[in-house]
Records
---
Amino acid sequence: MTGDPRIPRAPGLLPDDGASAAPDKPQLRRLLKERRRAIDHAVKRAWDDRIGARVLAWVQEHGVRMLGVYWPLAGEPDLRPAYADLAEAGVRLALPVVLERDAALGFAAWVPGEATVADSMGVAVPAELRMVDRPEALLVPCLGFDARGYRLGYGGGFYDRTLEAEPRPKTVGIAYACQQVAFEIGEYDIPLDRMMTEM
């Protein structure tokens, strides 16, 4: 984390003038959820479409054949229209599956339109679990992120454990630009390769 005033940041970001001024992570998570909930529905839809178009271009540019995607929760960018376009283009998709509380995520093959069910944590997973190897690239939803590509999630550590094993998949963090904020990095936090927002 840096308090260097020369480093530009988008207007409206939460304070990043040093660790002492920054909220703790639970408080920061609440603030970021509130900020995300406050986005106007029509604006959010336009932003989601813009992010989805960027994801499509990135997947084509990198020749990704299998992509780990996510089911949107609680105001996360909804990229399901882009998932349909990806599947139509021949990209295989997989949704994350929580196998154990303190373990890496598993992944199950999923085709847009296929039935899903809520798991024990309320996350949509394919109704028919066809488990696959960890995809070569992952879209990772972010509650918050910083300028170095570190992600603030919901605190479960699932993605950090998923990214520990080598070779690491390519990772694209997905968030809105207003979710960029400074925060303390934990010992096991792993930066993402790229952040993708509506900007």
---
Amino acid sequence: MATERNIRTNIGFYPPQEDGGAWRSSLPSLERALQQGFPDAVIDHRTSAVHGRQALDFEIALAPDVWIVGTSSMEEPDYAFITLTDVTADEAAVFALWLRDSFAPAPDLVRFVSSLAMANGEANPWVLPASGGSEEVLAEIRRHIDTFDTF
């Protein structure tokens, strides 16, 4: 019987390439949404040393004793990203479902890419399923990771 590898990677979430401002959001709106969706959220603001843009760092609990760390920048009207650090597909899927269903203004506006993919030369984010529940989202994130996991 095959067992699922519990690979950890960074996962970035982005609006559609042709409309970087499609989420119509800002760091304050993301902060409010995170606090509503994850009441124990720990949030900090900083200026990115790399881009000089304002960034929001967060740590949220997905379940008891399951915390994930992320960062986001949405300073410009046509630029947005949210990155989760060192997460499993299962953890990323919980966040992705929340992002799609509770933050993005429409379910077809979320793309994602892993650091595994980028390390293998893939720079194009995949589209998160616009419909379906947690099983469909998890299956797509696992398929993505499996495509680029060359252990």
---
Amino acid sequence: MSRRLRMWVLATGGFAVAVLLVAAYVRLPRFGGERHPYGERAVAAALSRHTANAISSVNFDLRAFDTLGEESILFGAVLGTVVLLRQTRDEREVPPAPARIAPPVRRYARIMLPVALLCGLYVIAHGQLSPGGGFQGGVVLATALHLLYIGADYRALERLRPVGQYEVADAVGEAAYVVLGIAGLVGGSAFLANTLPLGTFNTLASGGTVPLLNAAVGMEVAAAVVVLLARFLDQAVEIEQGPARKEGKQS
């Protein structure tokens, strides 16, 4: 295909998308108006499934398959990072030298570490009841763990962060979401259908599969962010056999 033909294909596709966007725009409800068809249907569906947080109902029930795609994007990004930043045979890790930490920063990090971890768990566990959920709570958990890096040193973080186990947890969280979807097929319904008992409204056990899918996402996101940050932090490496050393050996 020539360059000119590719440009025509691109222009045609862009024009078609623009037409669709304009057609959708002119049919949108007036801003601030009283008619909100999607919101009304989403809230009604959330209440019928005993899910107090309508956003979690949309994410993990009404369009749970889309959320699987979003989770898989993060999983694929972390997998790609692990492959690209893996240690090669001509590299060796250099242990980072301990840096001096101001006492107020050290005290703040030690105090906030358990508080931040508890907040992350709370956000995940109450995702079907209040704002938050697996994505937000998972990020809070992962970043809270790195308060050790700020308040202590990198070696303290490494002791509490065995990267291999977090890589397994990342895969388990992704697989758990898929298994819950297959459970709907086994139960005679659709993939990721909400087939579990709905429980009592506004309690932790409400929402059917929503809290389970939410927890699976929380595990996957928390582990994925930890692995992602670990791979970038571990880039304190030194090339053992660089070009200069090889030239020295040849001479």
---
Amino acid sequence: MADLQVAPWTLVIPVKRTAIAKSRLAAAYPQHRPELARAFAVDTTAAILSSALVRAALVVTDDPVVARDVTAVGARVVPDLPAAGLNEALLHGAGVAAAEFPGHGVVALSADLPALRPAELTAVLAACVAPRSFVIDLPGTGTTLLAAQPGVALDPRFGVGSALAHQASGAIPIELTGIESVRRDVDTAADLAHAVQLGVGEATADVMSLVLGAATGTEGLAC
């Protein structure tokens, strides 16, 4: 990827406190939901930092365990000083990224992409040539990635119907094939099952092994 003539990117990943994150997984994984939320963030961050086009990963979180674990894989933690919601956290992180890495593009990325493949992320980043670009999630209504070129405001509009909101704001959808892992965010048990089929990262696989062990009364099973 060294010959790609594109600006490197700084990625901003917002992570809720795991005590309240991924509430829709609670019914299926009542004992392991917080661990899964943490694992998703760790695997997403590790995959990000393996992309040739990523300069740095800034994780915006106030969760001390998440902060410890993403730091261990190479991310920088930015406290969620606004503590006012997802878009505000992203704006805060984008401001830090722009100040510390001027001349680099800024990307907001969901923290729940446990099957993320660095090569697919790199392909997406290389395709982000418009002032603002975004990736629509697999259900077709949400957003997993929003990119802004250097000097362009990120203007995040995450939330219900964010795909339409980002497109209405002028962001251009990335319509590559073969980027399923970038689009597979996990909110439900069905989403997680699909991510496991794609191939999740080490942290998520470890938690899923615990889940399977709890279900069968054994320990240390491979995912």
